[in-house]
Design brief:
By secondary structure, this protein is mainly alpha-helical. It has one domain. α1 runs antiparallel to α2. It is flat, with a radius of gyration of 19 Å. It starts with a helix and ends with a helix.
Length: about 80
């Protein structure tokens, strides 16, 4: 397989996973609203927490790059 094809497949799979994370965070949000309307506050907050972590997961590659840069800067400062 060529390198361009591998990168394209990786990009497509990342978009599909990002869509799944967006979808799950939206579903968690609306389900949490339903639970809140019925008076189940704990379950509503739990679902909002799950939705928030699912939404944050969309930015996992950006977060990994930031952490990598911070570690690199820390190592350079120790030298």
């Amino acid at each position: 397989m060529k390198m361009e094809s591998k990168m394209f497949n990786k990009s497509i799979s990342q978009m599909i996973i990002n869509f799944a994370f967006i979808y799950s965070s939206i579903v968690c949000h609306f389900k949490a609203i339903e639970y809140l309307n019925v008076g189940e506050t704990f379950m509503a907050f739990f679902l909002w927490f799950c939705g928030a972590t699912s939404f944050i997961a969309i930015f996992r590659f950006k977060i990994a790059n930031i952490v990598k840069k911070l570690k690199k800067n820390e190592l350079e400062q120790k030298k």
